[in-house]
Automatic annotation (TrEMBL):
Secretion signal span: 1-20
The entry's keywords: Signal
Protein name listed in UniProt: Uncharacterized protein
Amino acid sequence: MIAVLALPKVFFLAFHVTAGLRPLDCDGVEEDGVRWDVVRSDLCHALGEVIHNGALSRDLHAAKDSKGRDPAVSYGDVQLQRHLERFQKLVLVLPERSRCPLGRHCLRILVSVLYSGLPWDAWFQRYEEDLWGLVHGTNWTEALSGGWPVFEVLFLVADLYGGEQLPEDCRSVESKLRALEKLIGDPEIMKHAAPLLRQTCPLARSAAAAALAAAGMRANGGRLQIGMSPGVDVGLLAQTQAAARLAAGRHSGGPKAIFAQPLPSLLLRLDTAHKKFHRAWMRRGRVDIIYCGQLDIEEKLQEICKGIEGECIVHFFQHNSSQRRAPECFQHYRSAGRMVSAAASVSASASWSTLLVSPSTWTWTEDSGRDLQKLLQERHKFARDVALAGLPTINRSKIFNWPVRRVIHKYWKLAYHEYATGHETSPFLPLAQFWAVGDTTSGTRVYGTRTFSSLMTRLEKQELEYVAALPGFEAFSRGDGARVPAIEAALASENEGAEDWFVMLDLLGKDAGLRAYTYLNGASLEDSYQSAARLSPRLSQTFHIEAAHFLPAKGSPGRPQEHCLFPYTSLAGSFTQTHGVVVSWCTRKFLHQMFRDVGGWWLGMDPLRHIIVPVSASVLNLYRSGETELFPWDADIDANFIASHPVVIGSLLEEHEETLKRMGYTYILRGDRVVFRTLEDTARMDIWISGPQDVRAFDIRARLCGVRVNFFRDQLMGSVWYYRPGEKIYGNTRGKLLHCQWKGHNACLPDCVRNGLGVGKDGCEFPDRFVHLFT
Ligand SMILES: *[C@@H]1O[C@H](CO)[C@@H](O)[C@H](O)[C@H]1NC(C)=O
Ligand SMILES: *[C@@H]1O[C@H](CO)[C@@H](O)[C@H](O)[C@H]1NC(C)=O
Ligand SMILES: *[C@@H]1O[C@H](CO)[C@@H](O)[C@H](O)[C@H]1NC(C)=O
C-alpha cells in the first residue's frame, strides 16, 4: 500500500458528529407476506435491467401499449415489464410500519418515479419522506454491504428528472466536479479530488469522496491509499453520505438538492465499483472438489481449478473395483467432507464453494469442465440466495434425465417424487428464469461451503441422537466424548455406496430447509445416483427410515427397499409411547401381514362357519383406517376367531402347526388365548379362539387389513361408549392425546394438545395418507 496524499484533519473530525443511524434489519425478515430478501434481490434485478441493460431507453411501455410492437423489444423486456407490474402491486400491500423501511422507500420511489405520472414538483413533495429515508434514515455503508440498490434508485430518479442545477456555492468548482467521473481509474484522481474534499460546498465534498471511493481509494488515518477490501472503503462512503446529508439539509428544495449532477452518476459508479471489488474479493476464496469413482479424471478436475482465483483443492480417489457401489467411495466422500468442514470451521468465508462430482458420472468431455466452471460462477454470483446448485443430467444411454425431485421423508419412509410440472420457481426474480427449484438436484452439485459444513455438523448430531435412541445402541446413549467415532464404527458396513452419501445429503438438506437450484444451461453426464442407492443399515439407522423408494413410481409404487429397526413389537410399541411418533413401518407391516395370513387361514378353513371379530382397540380401525390399513399409532391387534362348531384349541393348533410354520408363523398357547407370532418374533397378536357360538348374530360385516371381519350392533356401540374414539389417544392404558415428544422426528404424530390450547390447525390429523403402509 502506498500513502499518497495527506488530508486535512478537520475533514475527518466532521464525521464524528453525525448522528448514528438505525441499523438495517431486513435480512430474513418477512412481514405481511412480504419477504424483504426477495424484494432486495428483485429490485437489484429490475434496476440492473432498467439502468444497465438499456431497457429504459427502449421504452418500457412499448410492449404494453403499441399494437405494432417494436421487434427489438425482446421477450426479456416483456418479462421485465411484468416484473415491474409486480412491483406496482407489491407497493399497494407494503406494511405501513416496517422493520425494513429501506425496502419500503426503495420500492415506493422506483414504482412512483416510473409510473405515477406526477409533475416533478408534486412528485418530490409526495415522496419527500421516502427520499429523506434514503438520504438521512439509511446507513449507506450497511445498505451497500447488504446488497440494497440505494444508489441505483437515486441515480434513476436523477436520470429521469434531470433538472437540478448545482447550488450557488458550488458553481465555482463546477468544471472540476464534471471532470471527476472521467478520472475514476486514473491515478491523477487523487490530486484532483483531494482539494474538493475541502470545499465549503457539501455537494462537492460528497462527489469527491464518492469518486475516490469508486476509484478504490481508502482513507486511512488521514491519508488516501490504494487498498484491497471486500468493497469500497467504508470511511469514504461515510464521508460521501455525511456530506450529501448536509447538502440535502442546506437547501430549501430538501433532498432534491442531491440530484444535481455529477453526484448521482458518481454514486452509481460507486455502486458498480463496490460490486466489482466485492466480486474480486469473493473470488479469492476456496473451492474444494470431491470425487470418487471409476473415471480417471484427476487432471480434468485440476483444470476446473485453473479458472479459480484463490485456493482450489481436489480430493480425488479412483477405485477400480468392478462393482458400481464401492464402500471406499462412501468413506472418501465422508472423510473429504469432514476435512472441508474442519477447514471451514477455522476460517469460513461466504465465498467458499464445495463441488461434489457424482460417483455415477459415466464420462467426461470438454463441456463437462466448462459447464461446471459456469455452475461455480453462477452459484457464486447468487451465493446469498443459492446454497446448493446442480445441473440437468444425461445418462449413459444418452437419455436426458430431469434430476429435480421432491424428497419425502416421513413416518419411517423415504420417497423421491417427481414434481407435477418439473420443479418450483424461485421467488427471486433474477433466479426465476434460468433456474429450477426443488428439494434435490443432480449428484454433481455445488454447495456453499458454510452450508455444506453445517450439514456435516447436523449429520454428526443426527448420528448421536437418532442412532443412540434405537434398540441395540443403548451403549451410545451414555454421554461421553468418544461417541462419534464409536457410532461411526458401529454403522460402517460392507454394503455402502457413495450414492447413499448423496441421499444422506438430500435428507440433511431437506431437514435444514435447504432449496436445491438447478441451472438450466449445461448438463452433467451422470446416471441417476438414486438408481444405485440402497437403504443401507447406516442410512436407515441415522435417519430412521425403514422403507425407501429412491426412484419415482411409474404407475404403482412397487416394493420399497426395507430395513427394519425394531426386533420386537414391544420395542416398537414402547418407542411410540416414549416419543409420540407413529409405530415403526416394519412392525405395522409384520402385524398387517400376519393378520392377513393367519386370519385368511382361519376363514379359509371353513368359510361359512368361521368368522373373525376384532375386539378392544382393534375395533377402532373401523372408524380410522379404512379396509386395508391399521391406524398408525397402534402396535397391536386383538381379535376373536369364532366358529359355529365346537373347537378344541390345543388339538386344532397342533394339527395346523406345520401349515402355520410354512406361512412363517408359530404360536404360544395361554389358556383360551393364543399368541401368534412370526418365526423371528418380529410381531405378535393375541387371538381368542372359541366355538360353538352363534356366528349369525355377528351380522355387521367390514374388512380389516383386507380380511373379512364381523361385528354385532351392541358390540360397536359398547366400544364407542368405552373408547370415545373421536378423540385420538395413544399409549394404551395411560391414554395420552396424540402429541409428538421428539421435535423434528420424521414420524411425529399430529398434535392434539398444542401446548394446552387443544387441537391444532391440522385438526389432529395427518395431512394425507402417506403415513400408511401402502402408499
Ligand atoms: C453505519 O454502519 C456502519 C457499519 O455498521 C457503522 O460502523 C457506522 O457507524 C454507521 N454509521 C452511522 C452514521 O450510523
Ligand atoms: C486395483 O488397484 C489395486 C491397487 O490400487 C491393484 O492392486 C489391483 O490389481 C487393481 N485391480 C484391478 C482389477 O485392476
Ligand atoms: C437412462 O434413463 C432412462 C430413462 O430414465 C432409463 O430407462 C435408462 O435405463 C437409463 N440408462 C442407464 C444406463 O441408467
